[in-house]
Amino acid sequence: MLAFSLNYGELCLIAKFQSTNPFAKSIAMLKQVPTIWQHAHASSNPIFDAIKLAIRVMRDVTMCVVKAGGLSFRVPAFSTIEDLIPRAIYWTIRSVMACATALALLNTTDHTEELSTLADQNQHIHDLLRKQLTICYQEIDEKKYEMLLGLFRSIHMDNINTLKALFNCNTIYDCRTQTQVGLDVLRKKNVLLLISGLDISNNQDELSILEQIYSESLLYRPKTRDGGHPYELVWVPVMDPTVEWNDSMQKQFEELRHTMPWFTVISPALLGRVVIRFIREVWHFKNKPILVVLDPQGSVVCPNAQHMMWIWGSNAFPFTTLREEALWREEMWRLEILIDGIDPIIFNWIREEKYIFLYGGDDIEWVRKFTKMARTVSEAAGIAIEMVYLGKSYKRNKVRGVISTIMEEKLCHYWEMIMIWFFWTRLHSMLLSKIQLGKIDEYDPLMREIKKLLSYDKAGGWALLCKGFNIFVNGHSSTVMRTLTEFQKWREQVLEKGFDWAFKEYHDNLLQDADEPCCRFEFPSTIGEIPENLKCPECDNTMEKHIAFRCCHD
After folding, report:
1. What predicted TM-score, i.e. pTM, was given to this entire model?
2. In the chain, fewer beta carbons within 10 Å around the N or the C end?
3. How far apart are CA 356 and CA 70, in angstroms?
4. Ranges 5-19, 45-59, 60-74, 356-370: which has the least confidence
5. CB 502 within 8 A of CB 481
6. What is the DSSP letter of 432?
């Protein structure tokens, strides 16, 4: 094939330029190139069409033979390929000789029919080879997949073999220094794999908070014996293996990694089909970013630590499932688990033992009525109440509109959009963390209240009445508003029990008579594992499961 290609290529070049280039014309005369070659590039010429077809099919067959020789494993389907290869070689050599003869005798003999027959024969062999190669690749992928599963089930001295298998490379890219470094920089460290698509840039709030937590951990976490950091983060972009990696994707990847303070793989194209399948099937990656944690030996100690990181930040180190369970055992339904340093102003109010209403929703009329009624009641009760608007977990454009009105009318204190996003992200993470631990329906007062709050967010408005770190009422907008409106009915109890307990008692009695719809939850299909069953935090019945479609413009 190589020898024929050189001769054929030379003839093509001479034929192309001999009519315009004197030197090419002289070479054509010396080599006795047939004059018919001057018409080789005509739109339609039967003999040249037959030659070109034969060459194309020969090339395809030869590439299949080369690919077969480069297979990394000998799988069952390869035996059929071994039987086909001698036939492929024979018909390829015979086709080469036929093409060479046809080229040499262009002026005297018509070889069109013979070349067409050989092309058909080679095409048939090529189809067989390509089919068997596809089967071989599938069998090899299955074998590699089983080996990768076995690698993660095994115990290792360090994490290098595991990382090599995942990244298909001995190096990674350090985004801080913008250089390639060896995998040894990760040896025997806790490694957090940030797995996402290239669309991670769409989640700027998420990225900025993650970068803040990561940077703080580098400053305040104790260093290892060699002076390094106790864990490192590696961004692993996962692409659709059926889509060919191109220059546009490479440019987008390079632009993104230049903005990051951690490590990343050399190229997403190196991951391969097997690793991508493993990430999707075993680690349940469904295009929404996840944070898989590997211990210093390369074993998975948490399938997704993102929930932990949102809730407890670097305090969750070393980000294992055991650490997650231990942190939950320390938590209670108190204000600190909800706000966790998001807003220092609220902590000042807590120290001053003020009454605080945290509330949310997207109905500006309800916001006006609620803030007005809360002030009226506080004046009547002779107490100071502070209010903070925390928006909703979605409908961001409507929330921005409500915040604008609150600013203009000076209704109350409010949070910036990124603070609102982080608040709701942490709440959702608490729910998802319990799902991941398999403890979503355990009797847990904290989780029951979190589920209520998430449900109220979907059902309109809500409000929390707090004093100090204690949360006295977690209610839907309708019952909280009614409690405020009917203040005169429980006013006398304020002097006897205090505003907080009197409010709670009247509100809880309303709940027994209220004809409000029960709770509902929405889980995006991208979160990975969705619970099979879920109990209602209000009535404790097993909830029905529905499928919903929602427009994502907002």
Report:
1. 0.77
2. C
3. 70
4. 5-19
5. no
6. H
| Mean of pLDDT values over 206-218 | 81
Mean pLDDT across the chain, nearest whole number? 85
Give the tens place of pLDDT for each residue, 430-444.
888 888 887 766 678
Helices 487-497 and 477-485 cross at an angle (nearest 10°) of 80
Give CA separation, 321 vs 106, 279, 335, 434, 482, in Å.
Answer: 76, 19, 24, 11, 43
Cα separation, 210 vs 542, in Å, equals 35
Buried (b) or exposed (e) across 171-208, using 16+ Cβ within 10 A? ebbbbeeeeeeebeebebbbbbbbbbbeebeeeeebbe
User: pLDDT (tens digit, 9 = 90+) per residue, 124-133?
Assistant: 999 999 999 9
- Give the residue from 129, 57, 137 showing the smallest Cα distance to 87: 129
As given in the structure block, the two tokens for residue 58 are 């020969």
* CA distance linking residue 542 with residue 183, whole number of Å: 48
Tokens of 279: 């990430």
If we measure between CA atoms, which residue out of 501, 445, 507, 441 comes closest to residue 478?
507
How far is residue 549's CA from residue 267's CA, in Å, rounded to a whole number?
A: 35
User: What was the pLDDT predicted at 35?
Assistant: 56
Both tokens assigned to 228: 């390094």
Q: What type of residue is 80?
A: T
> How far apart, in Å, are the Cα atoms of 261 and each of 45, 174, 175, 237, 266?
61, 8, 6, 15, 15
- Cis amide leading into 261 (omega within 30): no
489 burial level (CB within 10 Å; 0-12, 13-18, 19+)? exposed
Rounded to 5°, angle at Cα 78 from 72 and 81: 120
DSSP β-ladder status, 263-264 and 231-237: parallel
What is the tens place of the pLDDT at every residue in 231-259? 899 999 999 888 888 899 999 999 999 98
Residue 369 tokens, joined: 């009525």
Residue-level pLDDT at 7: 82
HSE at residue 31, side-chain half, CA atoms within 13 A, is 21
**286 vs 439, higher pLDDT:** 286
User: DSSP states of 475-515 as a string?
Assistant: EEHHHHHHHHHTHHHHHHHHHHH-HHHHHHHHHHHHHHH--
Q: Which of 112, 123, 12, 151 is nearest to 64 (CA)?
A: 123
Region of poorest pLDDT, from 51-60, 442-451, 475-484: 442-451
Task: State yes or no: pLDDT of 446 exceeds 90.
Answer: no
pLDDT of residue 29: 67
The residues facing 126 across adjacent strands are: none
